[in-house]
Write a structure and sequence with these properties.
It is built from 18 helices and 23 strands. It has about 575 residues and is α/β, with parallel strands linked by helices.
Length: about 575
Amino acid sequence: MHRMNLESMPDEILLEIFDYIPGCDLIYSFYNLNRRFNSIIHGIRLNLDLSYVQQKTFLYICHYILPEFYQQIYSIKLSNKQTIDGINYYLEQSKYLQQDQVKNLILTEPTIEQLIKLMSYFPFLKTLIIKTSDYLVVPIEYLSKTLRTCRMPNCQIDLSNLNIEEKEIYFVEELHIKMSDINNLFTLLYSMIYMKRLTCHISENSSIINSNINSQQILLLLNYLKLNICSISFKYIENLIDLCPNLTSFIYTYTTGIESSHDNEHIDYERWNNLFTNKLHHLKTFDLHISLNIDAQRDLVFITKKFQELKFLITNHIRIIYEITSYKHIICTIPLMKSHLTNFLTKSSLSNIPNAYSRIRHFDLVLNETILNQQQHTIRCPLVHSFYLGLYENIAPIEQQSRLLLNQSISFVYLKHFELYGTCITDGFVAQLLSKMTNLSSLTLPLTHLISCQINETISQNMKKIKKLQLALTETISIDCVNNVLIPSFPNLNSMSFAIDNRLQSFEKILLAMIGKVNNNDNHLKYLMFLELFALDQDWNHTLLTPLEKFIRYKNNYRFLYIWL
């Protein structure tokens, strides 16, 4: 039998294999093995992910890979979150390098100062993605004219220096942003006529309709539009649709804000019918979600029926339902008929239930006896990836019924993330659930039930796949728990969150045990790179952290401490 080793493979096959290997691992594993591998590596694009790595890997990349291979780096991911202040460190290490060849940049939690400096480092970007919990205002002059994809869902573009009279054009094809004034969106689109996909959250209504709207250029290439609107006149939406004659996909969400005078415009079925009939000739995909303040004069049954009679919705098999909560009226589309809803106009057959929620990826459920008794039909969400379960009532006598409900609702094999909270949870119930979750990578549960992860071999094998673990921030972890439960049960952890009471437990001992610095113990969390700690006793004291600075980089925020290992 002829056996083929890696070196005997043709270059084309090696290039295919190398595409699946992160740039850092590729160089660390194959560079300098022989001249052939060196030649291949020097001829490929490198994608560097510095957003979620251990300190030693980050330093290795900055000190050895960047100076040697900077001309081949095509894509970079940087973060200030898990790699604490990693963006500043990268800026310092790479400030003398020419990085014109970098085309893709992905940033997590950058500051506006860091973003502006990075834009000067990478003048020919094609893709810019910013993930941030802070609200950033990005001056448009710092966006490269070469950008094709720009995703900044929590950022606004400052247009104060945009010169419309000179018809300054940007070549962005995909844009995801937030705007504080819808007139600013029209101004921006005037300079982005090559747009193909637009996702925008607009939070305010302008008091004056922009006079330039009528002279706006038509966005002939725009085929995907997703709008999240708050208290804005529907007239603006109609004006925007006028600029998008070739839309094939339209996703629209409207929510009542402080100003509710425009609410009824958005549920005017005649105006929607005019859009479908006279303007959206190419539309194939349509999703609608309208959430309004409760109005006793509003007849939701009549409005829903009128919407459902629209020719476009009938032709494309799109269903409309209404829901009434304690403070909202909701009208929305659904993928298929939901026969368990009592307010549905035309009930579907039971055969439709297995597919009714096929698009649901996240499922929240707080179990109590009332819900179990009132559940007439099973809600099936077969492809759920993320599941939150709360148990705050003692339902031990009907645990079997709870398990039956969950088994019928969720295919546990698809779950990647599971959160369990509550004060009335038994170890047996936890074990039953964890034994079914064979592909979990992220787990949240109360500290008292951590021992459930060792009940049997099936659960133990499942827990070895966990990369991210969060323990409830109400009880302190102990050194015995770390040594006897945590390390043996979760050997492949990358990140972890837990609480500690420094009056009862030694933070230093716990950290050193986790990273194997106690008597050179090999039994530790080898892949751990990020910790989030909550102090139950008082705010973090820097004197407690000073002896550990040779092992960690950290930042603290009152009782929270973030550590990069």
